[in-house]
Specification:
The structure holds 2 protein chains of 2 kinds.
Chain A (H helix, E strand, L loop, with lengths): L4 H10 L8 E3 L2 H11 L3 E5 L12 E4 L2 H11 L3 E2 L2 E2 L3 E5 L5 E10 L4 E7 L6 H7 L5 E4 L8 H9 L5 H21 L1 E11 L5 E3 L2 E5 L8 H4 L9 H8 L3 E4 L4 E5 L2 H13 L6 E4 L6 H12 L6 E8 L4 H14 L6 E7 L2 H10 L4 E2 L2 H12 L5
Parallel strand pairs in A: 14-16, 16-17, 17-18
Antiparallel strand pairs in A: 1-6, 2-3, 2-6, 4-5, 7-8, 7-10, 8-9, 10-11, 10-12, 13-15
Chain B lengths: L10 E4 L4 H13 L3 E5 L7 E2 L3 E4 L2 H8 L3 E4 L3 H13 L4 E4 L6 H13 L3 E3 L5 E4 L3 E4 L8 E8 L3 H12 L4 E6 L10 H10 L5 E7 L4 H12 L4 E6 L23 H10 L3 E2 L5 H9 L1
Chain lengths: 380, 289
């Protein structure tokens, strides 16, 4: 799960990290009033779950409260990477002397949380990693002991030569690790971590991604979810216990299992079509799931055919067949449905479907080819 | 032969009385797996359907029945402790089926189990099946039969699809292993490749990977240096968009890393035959045998 910058900053501030806080506005008037309270120059920042906000024009400086209102009215409602900006953060504009990067990720290679710090912050850290990897110091942390004080200090010495700044940074790194662990993050970063002309170290932008598997035991983090910043169909899918990701094609896919779902999308492409989505109905053969899956897929106007690909191992294909029949009675579907079922009880499933006027195939390639043909308007 | 499980596997089921645990215990017994014990705290002294004794702790189950392998079906909140418990009580092979285990839990569980000298498979995996001998987990028993192919995969139903197609062509498996779709797991591709290399009955290996991470790339380099048997590979997720988690927690393209193209390229560079479609695995394996 992604959370907004302002939410990440609140988590960091609660741990004691010096973060110049501002306020969140949903209207230009609110932005003006926050700017007035803060006094001085402010920065107005789009709060959306997308990188590259600055380049997209979603981050603007304002010298006066009136200007803050004007900038907010430009940013609110703006589209950034397909997402509409509903909120802006209005924060004090800090004078910046230096910009550094500090972050922690769960690293798959070392199977541990790994700190990454670089005195060259403020820009895309992946680009630094690709072009100038020596500029980044990496440190794997043993999660059983956490970030040890001497490790935090070592990292801090890679950022600053001033002793006071080193000490401040070491404390911030330990606080950041603490937030990372407590929130169940997969990534927690401060970019940039700045020094002011007066020499103070401060976090002025932050990003935290949460491991979805943590949410069941962290209701306070789940409460930070902003469903308005997610695609509506994906929100509905999550609420229905389905995994759904919208894509740009026209072949709607309903598959059991994530690996098979990806392989099905790939096969659609292989036969010259474009998948409209990733959708995993999981191991359950509850007809309700099939109904929800069909509702979500048919709400996409691009979809010209629906392709089921079900491998019945534990899932009984006759249950899925019943789900399809039930679902098509409950909702109007005006696009063709291609069904591929194989495995447990496939003879019964095929009979159920045939009695309801559907035809079912047992071969994956044959079904995908047929779906692609139908999507392209051939062979109806 | 087979890898990791065989006729000597004596299985304890952790979470035997739960919905998934009881369903799959029945399936495993029907397949012929020697399920010697179950564990559900508070239900010690009862039996599972009159045949399998239930204990409160893994410790007791091991002492009373000589269990050497465990399979875990407990909910995510209890999965880490179930893995610690199995390792503490001398289980040498632990299979965790549970989906949704927090990754930070796994950063602690994994080194703990390694230090105890045990092997972990999973979490979030379908388990494994040595046809005709033993099945531990949830892989349907009827979709493959004994034969010369060793298969290792990050996925569940995609694995079923491929072994079922192999079966249709008359080709069976020595062992079919699902290592799971999480970013941090106990057993990886390389562990399975090494075991298949050492298994005299395995004559060819299938590796089913997916987007995300670098495990497949490392495995491909390992194949070139250490594996003498033919290896056939498939990567799911060619059409996956970057930055989105494709169902599995581990199936996510980060930046430019972990794409299907990168993995397929590394497979080719290291002498692994690449199947473009799942069905192409059959032809490549037939040629290899």
């Amino acid at each position: 799960m992604n959370i907004h910058e302002y939410q990440a900053k609140e988590l960091l501030a609660a741990e004691g990290i010096p973060v110049p806080m501002g306020g969140v506005a949903t209207t230009p008037e609110e932005a003006e009033s926050i700017a007035r309270t803060l006094g001085g120059k402010v920065v107005v920042k789009a709060q959306v779950h997308a990188g590259g906000r600055g380049k997209a024009g979603g981050v603007k400086l304002a010298g006066t409260p009136e200007e803050a209102r004007e900038k907010a009215s430009q940013i609110l409602g703006m589209q950034i990477k397909g997402l509409t900006v509903e909120k802006v953060l209005v924060a004090p504009a800090e004078e910046i002397a230096t910009e550094a990067y500090v972050g922690i990720i769960v690293d798959r290679a070392t199977k541990r949380p790994v700190f990454m710090v670089s005195a060259a912050g403020g820009i895309d850290i992946e680009e630094v990693a690709a072009t100038n990897p020596e500029a980044i110091t990496k440190l794997p942390v043993d999660p059983r002991y956490g970030l040890l004080p001497h490790q935090a200090y070592l990292l801090a010495t890679r950022l600053y030569s001033d002793v006071k700044q080193q000490r401040a940074a070491a404390r911030i790194l330990q606080q950041l690790y603490s937030v990372f662990w407590k929130t169940g993050a997969s990534l927690a970063e401060i970019n940039p971590l700045i020094t002011t002309p007066a020499g103070e170290v401060r976090a002025i932008d932050a990003k935290i991604n949460i491991d979805d598997n943590e949410l069941f035991r962290k209701p306070e983090i789940e409460a930070l979810r902003d469903a308005s910043s997610e695609a509506p169909a994906e929100v509905r899918a999550r609420e229905a216990g389905l995994t759904f990701i919208k894509l740009d094609g026209n072949v709607g896919c309903v598959v059991n299992g994530a690996g098979l779902a990806m392989a099905t999308m790939d096969l659609v492409k292989y036969y010259g079509g474009e998948p409209a989505n990733f959708l995993d109905i999981g191991g359950s053969s509850n007809p309700e799931k099939v109904v929800n899956a069909l509702r979500i897929i048919t709400s996409d106007p691009n979809v010209r055919v629906i392709l089921f690909n079900i491998f019945g191992g534990i899932t009984r294909t006759d249950d899925v067949a019943n789900g399809i029949v039930t679902a098509t009675r409950q909702i109007d579907i005006d696009v063709p449905i291609v069904i591929r079922l194989t495995g447990t009880n496939e003879e019964i499933a095929v009979r159920i479907l045939e009695e309801a006027g559907f035809s079912a195939m047992t071969d994956m390639d044959e079904a995908v080819r047929r779906a692609v043909q139908l999507a392209q308007g051939e062979g109806k | 032969m087979s890898i990791f499980i065989d006729n000597d596997t004596r299985l304890v089921v952790q979470g035997i009385t739960g919905r998934d645990g009881s369903f799959h215990t029945r399936q495993m017994i029907e397949y012929g797996t020697r399920v010697v014990a179950g564990v559900t705290p508070g239900k010690g002294g009862q039996t599972f359907e009159g045949t399998v004794p239930i204990f409160n702790t893994v410790d007791e189950a091991v002492r009373e029945t000589g269990a050497n392998t465990s399979v875990i079906y407990v909910p995510p909140a209890f999965a880490a402790d179930a893995m610690y418990e199995a390792a503490d009580d001398g289980i040498s092979f632990i299979v965790c089926i549970t989906e949704g285990v927090p990754v930070l839990d796994m950063t602690r569980v994994r080194p703990y189990i390694l230090e105890k000298g045990a092997r972990l498979l999973g979490p979030n995996c379908p388990g494994l099946l040595s046809p005709g001998k033993s099945k531990v987990g949830i892989i349907p028993g009827h979709i493959t039969h004994p034969g010369p192919v060793g298969l290792v995969s990050r996925s569940g139903t995609l694995t079923y699809e491929v072994v079922y197609k192999l079966k249709g062509a008359g080709i069976g498996t020595t062992t079919c292993v699902g290592i799971g779709g999480d970013p941090i797991n106990g057993t990886n591709f390389i562990d399975c490749l090494a075991a298949f290399e050492a298994d005299p009955e395995t004559r060819a290996i299938v590796m089913l990977g997916e987007i995300g991470g670098t495990d497949e790339q490392e495995a491909a380099r390992y194949v070139k240096e250490n594996i003498t048997k033919p290896v056939v590979g498939f990567i799911a997720g060619q059409t996956a968009p970057p930055g989105r988690r494709m169902g599995h927690a581990g199936a996510i393209i980060s930046g430019s890393a972990g794409t299907a193209d990168e993995k397929i390229g590394t497979f080719r560079e290291n002498g692994i035959g690449v199947a473009r479609r799942p069905v192409d695995v059959v032809e490549l394996i037939r040629e290899a045998l």
